[in-house]
Amino acid sequence: MAIELKMPALSPTMEEGTLAKWLVKEGDTVQSGDLLAEIETDKATMEFEAVDEGVIAKILVAEGTDGVKVGTVIAMIASEDEDADAVKAPAAKAQQAPAKESASAAAAAPAAAASTPAATAAPVSADGERIKISPLARRLAAEQGLDVSKLTGTGPGGRIVKADLAGAASAAVAAPQVAATPATNAAPAAAATPFQTDIPHSAEKLSNMRKTIARRLTEAKQSIPHIYLTVDIQLDKLLKLRGDLNKALEPQGVKLSVNDLLIKALAKALVQVPNCNVSFAGDQLIRYARADISVAVSIPGGLITPIVADAGNKSISAIATEIKELAARAKDGKLQPHEYQGGTASLSNMGMFGITQFDAVINPPQAMIMAIGAGAQRPWIVDGALGIATVMSATGSFDHRAIDGADGAQLMQAFKNIIENPLGLVA
Amino acid sequence: MADTNYDVIVLGSGPGGYVAAIRSAQLGLKTAIVERENLGGICLNWGCIPTKALLRSAEIFHYMQHAKDYGLAAQNITADLDAVVKRSRGVAKQLNQGVTHLMKKNKITVHMGDGKLVAAGKLEVTGEKGVETLTAKHIIVATGARARDLPFAPADGKRIWTYRHAMTPSEMPKKLLVIGSGAIGIEFASFYNDMGADVTVVEMLDRVVPVEDADISTFLEKALKKQGMKILTGAGVEELKASANGVSAKIKTKDGKVEASEFTHAIVAIGIVPNTENIGLETLKVETTKGHINTDPYCRTNVKGLWAIGDVTAPPWLAHKASHEGVIAAEAIAKELGHKDAHPHPMDAQNIPGCTYCHPQIASVGLTEAKAKEAGHEVRVGNFPFIGNGKAIALGEAEGFIKTVFDAKSGELLGAHMVGAEVTEMIQGFTIGKTAELVEEDFMHTVFAHPTMSEAIHESVLSAYGRALHI
To answer: In chain B, what residues touch A154 (CB-CB under 8 Å)?
Structure first.
């Protein structure tokens, strides 16, 4: 039997994606675990691995095709004892012609195959193992857009059952990209009438990432009542500590940035003021037991927020190493969904551009984001006398539905105290 | 002196208790069981099993009377009630000895006597040999329940019976009043009707077997009436007086009229009362609801180390629910005691099937159509009558149907309801499916053997999606 290779759902929200590049060609023999293709989702480019082994009999969706719906058959794999040439594609008529992956045949196939329900595909975990899940749980998870590979099964032999989804549905709030936004109010920029102007211009098709950014930021600003609280924070002690630490760490080849220290400071502040480490989830408030910090990283064509999980309990050098590695892979578009989905609060730093202060947009369903301005020497009262100190402005944006002003102020105060008395960061 | 310190003590040896004890012993726990009367409890001594033996006799009697329908002849067919009862008692005795053997085989210590909790982990047993104090890390209460009496006419065993008297009747009732049309009431009504008695059933609610799907009730009522039974729904017994020759009853009918009628006997089957008295629940401040002990899905009570299973807890009050809870409790206890291979699973009442052995039989699992809608489900309903099933026709049992209720969106099987011959043996198909969380597709993709009555299971599912083949 030929195996249908279907467009995978590489993230919980993924409905369609771009088949960026085929890494195999027709006639290639593949083993389980071989890389088959690169697929661009709304967030990142991901590698699609083979689960079955066999020979690539037909490639049905040409590379560069975008808007390929999840579940669409993109290729056929012949099992080893089967004649690869004899394998028929599922879209019968389109394939009658001996399609040498002609563009027309390739285009026709996904359209025909798209009508087969994606839900029937047996779910597979990242490492290619079959996920044990009851038929009902599988269907309900697909309906609710839950990523079954992240669920813990309580049924026989760890099987995921319906009851396990109930827990996940509330926990899913922790995975921001499962946001409740229905596709209908997506991308408000997608206006029905084409844009017209006399000004010389070029029109560029929006990337999936750009569409997602547009949708999520619009959603955040429209649905979340933001409040903004700003404090000025003296940095001298923190800078000195950083210098000392870097000297000590030099033999290990680790260099800490100010940002690494700020990530830890924010996590510690959130643990101290748990009222700010929350998510507003309709009729309930989710309180997180640890602080996972999403760090805004600018990448070509947009922005992504890799996460430092449980940053309050990690050493600064561990945070530094992790962020460096995450940022590098983010810039290559190679982050795995779990590395950028989740997080309990965000940190955005524009100090390196000389921005003194700004108000950031909350990354839902998180309820706070900390915007860091540039540290600069300013006139400062030190011990009752006018002196000079290195000072930065930090502005917290808070979801006012979940967080009261006084709680937000407490968090800002805690953040300031930690930075101004930074030895606590290494304790 | 014998060592009376155990890992687990089970109080009560009914289908819940003895199974809990066996499972505990299997998991390597030092186990004792306390019983005041018969090992095996009501179920196999006075309940499920002996009634099935009685009903089997009635069924064969019924077939003999209808031998002509099958091209056979039988003359002078008579029923010997004493012999029928004797057979039933023989069956009960055989099984009682079976339980004794199982206790021995699993090295479970049996303490005969009345058990009473005196403190957490401490049980006093008063038996023939005097008072014995047992201690255990965990105690499982499995004391069961008994028949509820009419407040104004307690059963006397002569004219007014509970199920227990009805099982060992001293004489064949000529004109029988059955009060209550739940599983027990309707089974005895069916038995005595088949055996030739003139039976009247009084049900307070507006339909017989009121916990079942309304379509099942309607069908059963018609079938029973066709067999000559008199059925009064929406009616209540206002007065019941026993005399030397019979019972006189005043029955308030649906239209509010009170009618006086005479019967030779009456069976009271209006529900059960949990056996929670004098077992020390008050001492430990065990929480109850309407007398039944509150438990979590793993059978824990509010008191640490105290567990409860079966009829003494929340409904449904069925032997197989008790047994299953016995297994869950034993595994949960073993887990608490650090056993690595114990994987208790929580009880889900939606997956407990119910069977009533009247004639025709009824069996069901999950939600009725009305309850499913009440719970907010958009439903797809399937229905397949046995008249469309070849095997049923060949057996001369084409009466009845299978109804399925699915969630329209997810394809979840919410409930299945059956009435007809042997449906109590067929409900497991649906129960397995529900427990494994199969959806309609899985049932559709299953190959059903031909010719079997079970094919109607397939057809009923197909019917819910407009795809039934033989109708």
So the answer is: 345
Per DSSP, the three-state class of B86 is helix
Q: Are A139 and B442 in contact (CB < 8 Å)?
A: no
Mean pLDDT of A166-182: 46
CATH 2.40.50.100 intervals, chain A: 3-118
What mean pLDDT do residues B134-160 have? 95
Domain covering A122-180 in this structure, CATH number: 4.10.320.10
d(CA B347, CA B102): 25
Q: In the A/B pair of chains, how many CB contacts fall below 8 A?
A: 30
Of B227, B225, B228, B193, which is closest to residue B208 (Cα–Cα)? Answer: B225
Out of 3.50.50.60, 3.30.559.10, 3.40.50.300, 3.40.50.2300, which CATH number does the structure's domain A224-426 have?
3.30.559.10
Q: What is the DSSP letter of B439?
A: B
Nearest Cβ partner for A134 among B346, B409, B437 = B437
Q: What is the mean pLDDT of chain B?
A: 94
Say which amino acid occupies A298: S
Closest partner CB to A161 (pick from B409, B411, B437): B437
Cβ(A24)–Cβ(A56) below 8 Å: yes
Work out the angle at residue B276's Cα, subtended by the Cα atoms of residues B273 and B277, and round it to the nearest 5 degrees: 105
For the domain bounded by B360-464, which CATH number is listed? 3.30.390.30
pTM (2 d.p.): 0.60
Nearest CA to A326 out of A310, A306, A350, A312 is that of A306
Residue A23 confidence class, pLDDT cut points 50, 70, 90: confident
What are the counts of helices (DSSP H) followed by strands (DSSP E) for chain A? 10, 19
Residue in chain B closest to A140 (alpha carbons) equals: B410
Question: Tokens in use for A104?
Answer: 């027309």
Q: How confident is the model at residue B458 (pLDDT cuts 50, 70, 90)?
A: very high
With contacts defined as CB-CB under 8 Å, which chain B residues touch A135? 436-439, 441-442
Q: Where are the domains of chain B?
A: 5-147+274-336, 160-270, 360-464
Which has more pLDDT, A223 or A34? A223
Q: Which residues of A touch B412 (CB under 8 A)?
A: 136, 162
Per the annotation, the verdict on B450 as an active-site residue is: yes
Task: Please give the class, per CATH, of domain B5-147+274-336.
Answer: alpha beta
The CA distance from A131 to the nearest CA of chain B, in Å, is 15
Give ranges for CATH 4.10.320.10 in chain A: 122-180
Q: Do B360-464 and B5-147+274-336 have the same topology in CATH? A: no
Residues of A in contact with B439 (CB under 8 A): 135-136, 139
Choose the closest CB to A143 out of B343, B410, B437: B410
Mean pLDDT across the stretch B178-188? Answer: 96
Please give the CATH topology (third level) of the domain spanning B160-270. FAD/NAD(P)-binding domain (3.50.50)
Q: What is the mean pLDDT of residues B154-159?
A: 94
Tokens of B109: 């210590």
Nearest by CB to B410, which of A140, A154, A163? A140
Span A316-332, mean pLDDT?
87
pLDDT value at A225 more than 80? yes
DSSP string, B139-181: EEE---EEEPPBTTB---SSSEE-HHHHHS-SS--SEEEEE--
Distance from CA of A317 to the nearest CA of B (A): 39
**Least confident range of A98-102, B239-243, B339-343:** A98-102
What mean pLDDT comes out for the span A14-30? 82
pLDDT of residue A176: 39
Chain B nearest-CA distance from A140, in A, is 6
Fold type of domain A3-118: OB fold (Dihydrolipoamide Acetyltransferase, E2P) (2.40.50)
Q: What is the pLDDT of residue A347?
A: 94
Instruction: Give ranges for CATH 3.30.559.10 in chain A.
Output: 224-426
Q: Kindly report the number of other CB atoms within 10 A of residue A393's CB atom.
A: 20
